[in-house]
Amino acid sequence: MGLFILRRLGVMILTGLCLTFIVFWLTNLYPNLEKLAKTQGNFRMSDEAVSSYLGDRGYLEPLPIKFAQWLGVAPGWVTEKPEGKTFGRCFTEGTPEEERRSFCGVIQGDWGTSTVFKDDVSSIVATRLGLTGKLMFWVLVLMVPSALIVGVLAGMREGSKMDRSLSTVSIISTATPEYVSGVIFIAVFASSAFGLKWFKGSATSAMENANFENFFLPVLTISLYGMGYIARMTRASMTEVMTAQYIRTARLKGVSFRNIVMKHALRNALIAPFTVIMLQIPWLLNGVVIVETLFNYKGFGWVLVQAAGNNDIELLLAVSVVSVVVVLLTQLISDIGYVFLNPRIRIS
After folding, report:
1. C-beta separation of 230 from 148 below 8 A
2. % helix / strand / coil in the chain, to the nearest 5?
3. How far apart, in whole angstroms, are the C-alpha atoms of residue 69 and residue 73?
4. Closest residue by Cα to residue 295 from 205, 212, 173, 223
5. How many CA atoms lie less than 13 Å away from 182 in the CB half-sphere?
6. CA-CA distances (angstroms) from residue 264 to 26, 252, 254, 261?
7. Model confidence over 11-51: pLDDT tens digits?
8. Contact of 71 with 83, CB cutoff 8 Å
């Protein structure tokens, strides 16, 4: 088991570096850098002025060198101006020479400064990630148990009225995009007497106080979309287990249907949905962009839109790297959990 985890970690680190390098290359294409220079300087800047701005800040160095500096494994760039001004990636103008650092990157915990929010990138990402984490927690609390219950009930008796009804509900919820269900919920609950009674707050205020009144609508919107997929996978797994030979043997021995489901079928039926549930976490992290924008909830998805729309390279890089890490970590946890849940894999 330990060797399996080490191998997966090695693959995960290598994959993470490759994906991070691709993102770094895309964000550092010259049109993006030119737009950054004109945004920070003047939109009427000449080509020479743009080149001077980018050259002074290390943007025109070879891509591998820039990537190594960003990671913190190579010394940061230093610019010395003819008028005596000296500044660099790791220190600002006027910093005493003995206090100037040579290495400053992701490894050292320095993610740069946001050109839009004028703040440290790491603090911005940590704050917005915490807000989305709070949203994701309540989504999982509502979505996972509901989806498992619907899937198990539908799969217990394949072809029954309950199966057809619950499967139809699952398909409808999956086929309805968040921006459609979100708009419907806003129209229904924000304007009706019922909605005014129970949903007095807003998702924006939920960033400070995540109570039922102001947090339920975005949670419900995301949960309904993800619930259908998990329910359908659970139903398919449950249906397959209920037709297995050991279930037939238990029925022939006179074991009650309730005991067959609870003691024999349920655990094996939940192995496949576990992987699906873990894969929902990366989707929740990056797929809440629409919902956070719709309900004006300024979380991780919202800051991703702001970074991309305003060409905030340092912030966009940090958000992308965090997304890659979350995807790889959840995949690793999913693989390890699957091994523990499935005795046949452990034996092999």
Report:
1. yes
2. 75, 0, 25
3. 6
4. 205
5. 21
6. 51, 14, 14, 6
7. 888 888 898 899 899 888 888 888 888 888 777 888 888 88
8. no
Q: How far is CA 281 from CA 110, 268, 306, in A?
A: 26, 22, 22
Each residue of 158-196: pLDDT tens digit?
888 888 899 898 888 888 888 888 888 877 776 555 554
Total residue length of the chain: 348
- The pTM of the full predicted model, rounded to 2 decimals, is 0.78
pLDDT-derived band at 209 (thresholds 50, 70, 90) equals low
pLDDT in tens, 123-158: 999 998 888 888 888 888 888 899 988 988 888 888
CB proximity list for 33: less than 8 A, separation 6 or greater: 54, 59, 313
Gyration radius (Cα) of the chain, Å: 26
Provide the residue type at 226 as one letter.
G
Contact between residue 278 and residue 106 where contact means Cβ atoms under 8 Å apart: no
What is the distance between the alpha carbons of residues 143 and 309, in angstroms, rounded to a whole number?
Answer: 31
Residue type, 169: V
